[in-house]
Design a protein that fits this description.
There is one protein chain. With 283 residues, the chain is mostly beta strands. Helix content is 13%, strand content 36%. The chain has eight helices and 14 strands. The strands form three sheets. Strands 2-4-5-6-13-11-10-9 form an eight-stranded antiparallel beta barrel. A two-stranded antiparallel ribbon has the order 3-14. It has a two-stranded antiparallel sheet with strand order 7-8. A hairpin with a 3-residue loop joins strand 7 and strand 8.
């Protein structure tokens, strides 16, 4: 994968691919939720990035969905925040974070946190676009076409988002509540010189737990052509779900219907997004 000149937008811009790999989206229903019929029934929305080289990053997405993408100026609906809650070289660590678990309470006894449900997987890359900004771009492979579940979380067939890293020393502003700071090196912190609140995302910074990033909807059509990149080989799009091999998940451990029952080309779309949170994959 390599960048090339992009003549769109009235000028030539060169895209440089900084990182590429696999991307996965999951949502976790609320505790004891009988069924999920909308975002109000969702506790967390996750994004897993698996760059080439064997690392895995688990992000929690704010507002429980990706930012919308509209033509024209940016609006609050086109912005969202993400927090790195785990970086590891062991996929079992990611798996453990996504599986169901039980815990005890004094007043309600044992309570069950449902397993996270896969909602999409594909290929992604992080691109420096003409030196102006950095973009996170992806192309969805499963489901083949987005269905109701994907629409609820604003998961597109393909999309690009401007991605920036937040200065951990600057308080205030929207996003996640201040907690433990990412332990950036002194050299990395120099990039925030002058009190800069946001800087272009660099893959190395995304590896640090507690990193906060801002995502701004940029494009959802012609992503590969506009950025001058190639993300998907058609033969790969026909392969089985990689999350079971890459993240070592088993179908009996997580519900897979939203991943398998999106829309297929030429097929019917399900009319409703409704899934029993405790259900297992259907044959």
């Amino acid at each position: 994968m390599s960048g090339r000149d992009d003549a769109s937008g009235g000028g030539s811009k060169t895209s440089q691919v900084l990182e590429q790999g696999d991307i996965f989206f999951f949502y976790r229903p609320k505790v004891e939720a009988e069924e999920v019929s909308g975002l109000e029934d969702v506790q967390r929305f996750y994004m897993v990035m698996a760059p080439e080289g064997g690392m895995y990053r688990l992000f929690v997405i704010g507002q429980k969905q990706l930012p919308g993408i509209e033509k024209g100026g940016s609006t609050p609906e086109e912005r969202s925040w993400a927090l790195n809650v785990l970086t590891t070289s062991n996929p079992d660590d990611i798996r453990e974070k996504l599986l169901a678990e039980e815990y005890g309470t004094k007043t309600r006894g044992r309570r069950r946190v449902p397993a996270a449900t896969p909602a999409g997987e594909g290929k992604y890359c992080i691109v420096s676009h003409g030196g102006d900004h950095t973009e996170l771009a992806y192309v969805l492979e499963l489901p083949e076409l987005p269905g109701p579940t994907q629409q609820e979380f604003e998961i597109k067939k393909e999309a690009g988002y401007i991605i920036a890293v937040k200065n951990p020393d600057v308080a205030g502003g929207p996003g996640f509540e201040r907690g433990e700071k990412p332990r950036y090196t002194a050299e990395m912190m120099k990039k925030f010189a002058g009190g800069r609140r946001w800087i272009d995302a660099e893959p190395e910074m995304l590896d640090y737990e507690n990193t906060q990033v801002l995502l701004i909807g940029a494009r959802e059509r012609g992503v590969q052509d506009e950025l001058g990149i190639t993300l998907v080989d058609k033969s790969e799009a026909e392969s089985a779900a990689r999350l079971f091999s890459e993240l070592k998940l088993r179908k009996k451990e997580v519900p897979t219907r939203p991943l398998e029952k999106g829309r297929r080309r030429g097929g019917r779309q399900e009319k409703e997004w409704r899934l029993a949170s405790g259900s297992r994959a259907e044959a």
